[in-house]
Amino acid sequence: MDIIIKNPFEHVTIPKRKEELITEDSQKDSRNYWKKDEIKQFLTISKKDLSMRDHVIFHLLIYTGARKGELLALTWDDIDFEAGSIRLWKTLFQTNGTHIFQTPKTKDSKRLINLDTQTLSLLKKWRISQMEENLAYGERQGENNIVFTRSDGTPLRLAYLNEKLNGLVKQHNLHPITIHGLRHTHASLLFEAGASIKEVQERLGHSDIQMTMNVYTHVTDTLKEKTAEKFQKYIEL
To answer: Measured between alpha carbons, how far is 128 from 134 in angstroms, rounded to an integer?
Structure first.
C-alpha cells in the first residue's frame, strides 16, 4: 500500500452556499399584509364602492382579525352591544351547495373579544339596515338571525369575499393581499400598537403560541423602526 504524503483535498475550495438575495422590492412583493395608510385607503374605497354589508364585513376582518368563516357564521346573539364584545365560537363550512355551522377543533379558537366603539357603531347601523330589508322583503329563507346573508336570507359563499377583495385590489391598484392577509394585518398592527405576543395569541385564537411567533417574525417596518428607537432612547438614559 502506497503512503500519501500530502492531503489531496488540501487545495480544494468548498463552494459556499448561495444565499437568496432579498431586496426591498422582493420583500414588498411578498408582503401579505397592509400598512396603516393602506388600510385607511381600502376602507375608504370599500365604503364608497361596496354595499354596506360588504363594507362592514371587511371592516370586521381588519378590526378583529377573525377568520372569514367565523364572521359568516355570526348571529346577532353573538354580539353583545352593552358589553362591547363579540363571541367567536363557530365557523361556516360549505359543501355541495349546502352550509354547515361547525365548532372549532381547538378550544382556543372559541373566544370572546372586545370591540371598539367605531366597530360597534357600524354593526348597529348594519343591524338597522338589515331589519329594514327584512320588513321590505318579508319572510326570507334561512335564519334571519345571521348577521351577514344574501338577499334571500341564506349565508354568503365563502369565496365571495375573496372575489370582492381581488376585484377592489385590481380596480384600484392596491398592494395585493389575500383574505388571510387581513388577519395578518390585524396581528401586525396589534404588535405595532404595543400588544404582547400572548394578547395577540388570545385575540386571534391561536392554539399554539408558535403560530403567533411566526407572525411576529414578519412584523412591519414601522415596528422595526420603533425597536431601534427604543434602543436609542434606553442608551441615552
So the answer is: 10
137 domain residue, yes or no = yes
User: Residue 99 is placed in which grid cell?
Assistant: 352550509
* Contact predicate 123/63, CB 8 Å: no
Is there a domain that residue 162 lies in? yes
| Strand 98-102, strand 85-88: pairing | unpaired
Provide the domain count of the chain.
1
CATH number of the domain encompassing residue 105: 1.10.443.10
Q: What is the pTM of this model?
A: 0.80
Name the band, by pLDDT with cuts 50, 70 and 90, for residue 135: confident
Nearest to 128 by CA among 49, 220, 52: 52
Residue 5, pLDDT score: 57
CA 111 to chain centre: 16
pLDDT digits (tens, 9 = 90+) for 89-108: 999 988 777 888 888 767 77
Backbone angles phi, psi at 125, to 5 degrees: -65, -40
Show the domain range for 75: 33-179
Report if residue 86 sits inside a domain.
Answer: yes
Query: Is the C-alpha dihedral spanning 30, 32, 37, 42 positive or negative?
Result: positive
Whether 188 contacts 215, CB under 8 Å: yes
Q: Does 140 fall in a domain?
A: yes
The answer to whether the CB of 86 falls within 8 A of the CB of 148 is: no
pLDDT tens digits along 35-81: 999 999 999 999 999 999 999 999 999 999 999 999 999 999 999 99
